[in-house]
């Protein structure tokens, strides 16, 4: 069991009634709660959500507070400070004065910084420190009126050749307030991508998807991400730029295996972080399985850190992997399904 969950169970006497677990780890915490506690989970991680549902755990996959009544809330600290600000606001706008919020997280994950964010809404108390984690409690003294989701949106403009793209990104979404270096290295090559039915794996704020839609307005873009905030951000980016929403297919995925088949192209700045931890499974699976999801003449375009050894993985199925660019610490990799391999 996740050490954060173990710390929660150490202090289970503080818990009662219907407890909402926000951003909970994918483990059996709900099944191990004391008898006086009923749990629901609010997560924006689709892989975790599917796992919870598969274990008959009540789970809500959303960017917004579930439409349920709860007695207490436990927030598992997210990596993003801005996302925690959003979560705290949403929670205190749904609860009443006197109700308790618990905050749990790893020391290396910023729990002490996060505990200070609690102080805006009431008096805080550290309940436990164990397993390199801390558990804090706050009794709500100040509630707020719920602000709409777009209040938390950050926007910035990206120049793309002679065109410009206004990017919309919600809290916690990769590269929320600037164009990341990897995508910047990839952008000049997007006009070369074969048009048609295209998947953007790990779509984030929708920069790649939106630019491809600008280049060819009638092609179908499948924006794939595990994160509900990323999918919503991509939709907002399309709306802000007046792009064709009818040809945008937002699809939550547990991993690349959930991607559609018979694609003309797959384009990706693949993720390799899961919260504060490094995880290469999703991107390595993309390299290995991409050809299975492409038409015979389909293309794979990836931008990745130079130190990540993806070309051999791609070559195993495609037969050849071309390095289109190698700059600023990133490589743009290309493979075509029609090649023998």
Automatic annotation (TrEMBL):
Compartments reported by the entry: Cytoplasm
Gene3D superfamilies membership: Vaccinia Virus protein VP39
Boundaries of every Methyltransferase small N-terminal domain copy: 5-156
Alphabetized PROSITE patterns for the sequence: N6_MTASE
Chief subcellular location: cytoplasm
InterPro entries, alphabetized: DNA_methylase_N6_adenine_CS, Mtase_sm_N, rRNA_ssu_MeTfrase_C, RsmC/RlmG, SAM-dependent_MTases_sf, Small_mtfrase_dom
GO cellular component: cytoplasm
EC number(s) reported in the record: 2.1.1.172
Reaction(s) the record says it catalyses: guanosine(1207) in 16S rRNA + S-adenosyl-L-methionine = N(2)-methylguanosine(1207) in 16S rRNA + S-adenosyl-L-homocysteine + H(+)
Pfam families (alphabetical): MTS, MTS_N
Keyword vocabulary terms for this entry: Cytoplasm, Methyltransferase, rRNA processing, S-adenosyl-L-methionine, Transferase
GO MF term (any one): 16S rRNA (guanine(1207)-N(2))-methyltransferase activity
Top-level taxon of origin: Bacteria
UniProt keyword annotation of Cell membrane present: no
Entry annotated with the keyword Transcription: no
Domain Methyltransferase small: 165-333
Quaternary structure and partners: Monomer.
PANTHER family assigned: RIBOSOMAL RNA SMALL SUBUNIT METHYLTRANSFERASE C
Entry function: Specifically methylates the guanine in position 1207 of 16S rRNA in the 30S particle.
Protein family: Belongs to the methyltransferase superfamily. RsmC family.
The protein's name in its UniProt record: Ribosomal RNA small subunit methyltransferase C
Organism (species): Acinetobacter haemolyticus CIP 64.3 = MTCC 9819
Lineage: Bacteria, Pseudomonadati, Pseudomonadota, Gammaproteobacteria, Moraxellales
